[in-house]
Amino acid sequence: MLPRTVRGSLGRALRGAARPQRPLRSFATAHNLGPFTEVSTLPNGLTVATEAHPSAQTATVGVWIDAGSRAETDATSGTAHFLEHMAFKGTGRRSQHALELEVENLGAHLNAYTSREQTVYYAKSFRKDVPAAVDIISDILQNSKLESSAIERERDVILREQQEVDKQLEEVVFDHLHSVAFQHQPLGRTILGPKANILSIKRDDLANYIKTNYTADRMVLVGAGGVDHGELVKLAEKHFSTLPVSPKPIPLGRLAHPKTTFVGSEVRVVDEEMPTAHIAIAVEGVGWSSPDYFPMLVMQSIFGNWDRSLGSSPLLSSKLSHIISTHELANSFMSFSTSYSDTGLWGIYLVSENLMNLDDLAHFTLKEWTRMSIAPTDVEVERAKSQLKASLLLSLDGSTAVAEDIGRQLVTSGRRYTPKQIENAVDAVTTAEIQRVAQKYLWDKDIAIAAVGSINGLLDYNRIRADMSSLSY
Q1: How far apart are CA 57 and CA 13, in angstroms?
Q2: What is the pTM of this model?
């Protein structure tokens, strides 16, 4: 789900906040004969990171903030996303019209998104316009007006967005999955927030979120493509030197959240008017910095994705796809490994119109999960590793994708793994390691289930949970 300090007394208070002075630090992570990620830290704690491509005529610059919907409370749920909308509604220096006109005249692209743990504001522009892009981003981050009239107008916009999201069944199912897997905890809440909050969020809620979370030590200014690291550091010093700092600054990637507990449970939304069943099954996964992060990604890749409408031979993909396609048990499935700072969700999302055999669909899926704990094969592990490496490297196509990779990694782990390091980490995963993580995370573990649609044929939770320990292969 994709996805502003204020002038006046609040702005002065933030700019006057005590900032521990540290000397400017720089280091670089070298690639093999290729671009490298250079990282510097300003005295106020703001991190600046770049991957320069000298021949690129365009660049992506943006700010990645170590705060998202997880930083909210039940009462303020939806605030982070609301702020994303307010970012483009005018600042102390630019009206909304002036901001839109300036971006258009640059031929630039300005965007933002909110996730459960991050908020991102970024711009893609010509190389020569990077200073202007940084100026605009710093302005909307630090000087948004947050006018009451604009807030009231934006409520309807966000409610319409919520209605559109509610039509996307995959989004609905995954929100339900989070809500049951992390019950009554910040990760279990939706990013947009409940309708009641969207209608009641006030300017003070937005300003307090900024004051608490938009601090220099929790931000990374990223540049990729046609950028120069030294120039971006100077721009950061010019535009972000007055950012406030957390009372107790924490290094990037080490932000402490209240302990999250995975809950084995389910939610079912029956709608017999729907021609299909949408089912997500997950176990607790791993966080970004877990040593099992890459083995879990490889195990996800073993199951992969499959869609009968694509017409590709099931024999070219996983054994699960062969079973499901042969017996016509589903229309499609998508395996996933979703990570957060301290936990995650690992599982599968299934869509089926074979409503009389949903129990078989769940049974054979969990039987394949169980097989990973007993007898994964070298062939499927090597295939999965090759596919995963290709997917990860192909996802770094273009300056925006590279900037996203740099920002996310620095915010979540405090460092960036180069593509070569990622390739080596995937190559290091062995068949024995897949068996080990399967036994650790899959074998006889509690599961979370979210099901929507014509799901009366799905076995009850206890029967499905029993399959996690009683299946033999």
Answers
A1: 39
A2: 0.89
